[in-house]
Each structure stands twice: as C-alpha cells, then as structure tokens.
Amino acid sequence: MDEIDRAILRELQNDGRLSNQELAQRIGLTPSPCLRRVRQLEQDGVIRGYRAVVDPDAVGRGFEVLVSIEVARDRDAVESFEEALQDIPDVVEAYRLFGSPGCLLRIAVSDLRAYERLWIEQLTALSGVTEVNSQIIMKRIKEPRGLPVDG
After folding, report:
1. b/e for 88-107, b at 16 or more Cβ within 10 A?
2. Which of 6, 27, 105, 144 could be bridged to 149 by S-S, CB 3.0 to 4.6 A?
3. Can you give the residue ranges of the HTH asnC-type domain (predicted)?
4. Which domains does the chain have, with CATH numbers?
C-alpha cells in the first residue's frame, strides 16, 4: 500500500459518497487509475464496505448503553453466546475481550424502559451469561471517524 492508496482511504473514510471524479481530483490522479485503485482496495478487503452514519435520535435509538458481560469460560458457551448476539438488533457493536469482562457490547435503544426489557428478556437469558453490568452513555465525546492510515 503506497501513499496514494492511503490518500484514497483517508478521503473515502471522510466522505464515502465521493464520486470517482471528485476522489481522483482530490488525490491527484485521473479517474481511470483512481477507480482501478479503489476496486483493488475493495478486492483486497482493505475497503470492506460503505455505510451511512445515522443520527441515533433520528431513528429513536438515542439511549445508548455500554454493557460488560461475563460468559462461562468454555468454548461451547462462548460460541453460543456470540451466535445469539447476531440475532439481537439492539446490540450494535460487540467485542470479545482478554481478561475481565469477557465481552463488551454497545446497545442502542429508545429509552431506559426499552433497555430494561432487553436486559431482562434477552441479555440475562443468554446461555452461559454469568454477569451483566451496564453503563449508560451520558454524552458521546468523539464520533468514530475511521482509522488512521498514515504510513
């Protein structure tokens, strides 16, 4: 990956809706080689997709919670837990961690009542879960903006 590829990644992370023409102009290439490079980055799996950044409040999911979960430390329990998380749309991010807690989730729901229902009916009922701790997000200080791609 050279500096031109890194420039492409920086620009697309900043604005994934750029036309190829605009992207090429910003990085100093003509459109054809720019498009070839973008396609190659996609084929290589460097660019994994394009998404819209949605305002949680606008879609009724402005109540966000970070949830640490302990899961029984055996392969079947962990695999079952991770598979079950895929079917819970309120869980918008999930990470398995080294140490304790074993798993960290970011959940987006409408309000405290919706979170309580999710907590009681789904999170604590998942196979292998031994502990659930919740921390309500007061304020998002820094939005995800992509990864640094400097050489």
Report:
1. eebbeebeeeeeebbbebeb
2. 6
3. 1-62
4. 3-43 (1.10.10.10), 56-136 (3.30.70.920)
